[in-house]
Fold this protein.
Amino acid sequence: MLKNTKTFFIFLAFVLISITANATHGVDDETQSFLLGNKGIAFGPFLYIGAKHMITGYDHLLFLVGVIFFLYRTKEILLYVSFFTIGHSLTLLLGVMADINVNAFLIDAIIALSIVYKGFDNLGGFKQFFKKQPNTKIAVLIFGLFHGFGLATKLQEFNFDREGLFVNLIGFNIGVEIGQFLALGLVLILLGVWRRYNSYVKFSNLTNIILMAAGFLLFGFQMTGYFMT
C-alpha cells in the first residue's frame, strides 16, 4: 500500500508541475479561425468554446483544487465555487463589453499567485506567520475577478463583430461553467477516493506545497513573457 501511495503521489506531483507549463490559455487554430471570422450571434459555438477553454485552463482548475481540497460538505463546495463563479463571470463580461484592456501576462501572473495563496492558506501559513486568517470567501471572490479578466484578455485578442456579442459572451460564460462543473466533478471523484486512505491527511501538506510550487512556476513563466514582450 505504501509503495502504491508513493507512486501515486509522485505521479500527482509530476502532473501538477507539468501542466503549469501548458496553462497559457492557448487557442487552437480551428477555434482561432472561427473567432476571427464569426459574424453575428453564435451562441452554441461560443458555449462549446467556453467549456473547452475551461477544461484546458489548468491555472483556473489548480486554484479551484486548492479551494476545495479541505472542503467536505457539498454545501460548502457549492458556496465557494459560487463566489468564484460570480467573480469571474462579472469581469469576463465587463472586460470584453467595456473593452477594458489589461496586460495578459500580468493578469495570468496574478492568477498564478492565487494558486500560491490557496496552497499557503491550506497549509495554515496565515495563522502561523501573521496570526490572522483572511476571509476565504472574499479572497475566492476577489481572485475570481482576476480569473475573469484572464478569460476576457484572451477573448479581446480577437476582433469580434459587435453584433450579437453580448449573447455570444453569455454562451461562452455558460460554457465556462459547464467545463468547470465537469472538471470539478472529476476532481471531487478523485479526492473522494483518496480521502478514504490515511495518505490523504498524511500527504496533504506536501500536496499543497507542490500546489504552491506549481503556482510559482507559472508565475515565473508569465513574468518572463511580460519582460520579453
